[in-house]
Amino acid sequence: MKIYPSGKVLGARIVGIDLAQPLADAEFRQILRALGEHGVLCFPNQRLATDAFARFGRLFGELGINVANQFHEPGFPEVMVLSNVITGGKPIGLADAGQGWHTDMSYSKEIALANVLYAVKVPVRDGRPLGDTQFRNMHAAYEDLPAEIKARLNGRTATHDFAKFWDMMRARPGSQRGPLTAEQRAKKPPVSQPIFRPHPITGRAVLYCNPGYATRVDGMPEAESVRLLDFLFEHQAHEKFFYAHAWTEGDVLMWDNVGTVHNAVADYRADEPRYMRRVQVMATKDYARLAA
Ligand SMILES: [Fe+2]
Questions:
Q1: Fewer CB within 10 Å, N- or C-terminus of the chain?
Q2: Closest Cα partner for 180 from 169, 168, 166?
Q3: At residue 108, does pLDDT exceed 80?
């Protein structure tokens, strides 16, 4: 196994490993460390059956099951399908997943360590792959915050609400999303998250506040909260924190879901099929110890 850092603010390619085979403990630890260090890991040229894909994800923590997920691989509720493919007049996957900057599961009391996607079908136009996934580095964004903002928000929490992103997506023209049911809402009430938190692998502070889900800074007048969130969202959007992954079929992409925010680019059409499998790795292990 060889790790090639991108040389950019995020990203590394890991080659010489077949994720369909069981991983040696040393390889697992090396990947975990690389996830903390590089944030976005690409394993190219993988051929993974759904059970092997889920098994790889499960090495890193329990797999989450999305509260509003009606699209998953048959027999694998934890393997979500992200796709714009329509079969027999019906969508087979969530077509608009992640189109807007966010961090998965920040609306949940139990946060997610990582996202793992497997690219089965990638749209390509004029030789260029479409549907990039974009990232921003929240280790770097925290470090680069002005000292007075760090001091002002140290120990503070923000409210994160699943409904914010859902309703934003629903409001888009042509959205297939229905309103959240009372049951879905009740399963995911708004939660408070620390705005700065130690990263579970690196132990370093990250900015854990994203425009997809964060609705307000807790315990502060609304105007002040709006001003601070606007500042944080503008700050983290700086070009120097940015990284994009252009997909190739067979890529397994694993990204740090605590130390990055991400965005799915919707630059492909309905007649340009895209099909991804996804698992969400919940932060259920002692990663600092495993990575030591
Ligand atoms: Fe996402």
A1: C
A2: 166
A3: yes
